[in-house]
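In the previous lecture we treated proteins in isolation. Real proteins rarely work alone, and many bind small molecules. This record shows how such a complex is specified: first the sequence, then the SMILES for flavin-adenine dinucleotide.
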Amino acid sequence: MRITCIGGGPAGLYFALLMKKADPAHQVRVLERNRAGDTFGWGVVLSDQTLDALREADPETAEEISDAFNHWDDIAVHFKGRSIVSSGHGFCGIGRKKLLNILQARCEALGVELVYEADVPDDADIDADLIIAADGLNSRIRQKYAATYQPDIDLRACRFVWLGTTKLFDAFTFDFQQTQWGWFQAHAYRFDATHSTFIVEAPEDVWRAAGLEAMSKEEGIAFCEQLFAKVLDGHTLISNASHLRGSASWIRFPRVVCKTWVHHNDRGTPVVLMGDAAHTAHFSIGSGTKLALEDAIDLARDIQAHGTLPTALDAYQATRSIEVLRIQNAARNSTEWFENVERHARLAPEQFAYSLLTRSQRISHENLRLRDARYVGEFERWLAAQSGVDAQVPPMFTPF
Ligand SMILES: Cc1cc2nc3c(=O)[nH]c(=O)nc-3n(C[C@H](O)[C@H](O)[C@H](O)COP(=O)(O)OP(=O)(O)OC[C@H]3O[C@@H](n4cnc5c(N)ncnc54)[C@H](O)[C@@H]3O)c2cc1C
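The predicted 3D structure, ligand included, written as tokens:
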């Protein structure tokens, strides 16, 4: 089979290498508009569960990814001068660049053709049996065939900027800072020996009122450094989105859902959406890369398992769209939580942190206890004390 992937992000590269590995007779090509080694973004988070899926799909890359991981268990919530830590969360962080380098090297070793500085304006000239549109969040291909894919794009209410810092955080850290205009929050985690990701987020009206819209990129960074000076502990913030100028580095997260994922172009070639081109999940639950890699695993497996390409593509869309919906539900809860910090900020720090930890509704009270019995015990005792009870009882048994 002749396969062309448009876009050499995690989705395009991983699918390419899995297909070539499954059958070296496949001609697999990845067209990437950037130069090799050029990339934006800092570290991404993957769960232990995702790593298991990667191990099964391709142990070679899984081992390298695993070696490059920074593992941590704690989540720290800094709010109104308090720091509340909960443990047992099991996450891994890896630099986006490192991840792409591992996938690129594996593609090359397997014989995938990687073509850099190849900005694909259109799929019309691509002579292939299968085209993968893995061209990211602002997918041109998705736009071109919008009548088939029927994308629903919901621009969320907060502005955020994806920065890095040399401050090495021991825990996945959420830091909340109140300003005269409203609340700003930082999501920070270490992803390698020298750097941490540092995402700053605020509701659009707060961001505007603070004057960030009119600031240059450098002024915006200086603003954040000052605001989060305590947690940054003398370290600076760094941007590596050199392609974005001024306030353009602050974006509103687009939640993308597509009704269908397969279009047959004028040549009759299936053009299949994958990764961020097909769907997005808010960064606060750290699942975008996971979904992109799992899309690749599932389509490669479906092509192996089903006799014909149309059946495999049907199976791919059916299974992936359900999984994506599941993650997007959790992501929506999490997105909305961060859009409404002003409301949650009326809670005491103990309740605020608990609400944050359970925001996606994927982690229940008892699940949290399995992760960190000490934290839940202390929280239950604190909550009971608010009703005058001196005991550790589950919240539902405290008096009104
Ligand atoms: C602030 C932030 C934090 C995040 N944190 C996490 C996290 O912790 N965990 C996690 O799992 N995910 C995270 N993500 C999401 C993650 O970055 C994406 O979901 C993931 O990169 C999607 O992979 P992809 O291959 O589909 O798309 P991309 O990584 O966007 O790759 C698309 C590629 O296509 C190329 N391209 C685009 N158009 C063309 C064209 N016309 N021709 C040729 N090439 C083209 C681009 O240059 C790019 O290399 C985060 C995202 C953001 C914004």
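Summary for your notes: The domain at 2-69+92-154+254-339 is CATH 3.50.50.60 (FAD/NAD(P)-binding domain). The chain has three domains: 2-69+92-154+254-339, 156-252, 364-400.
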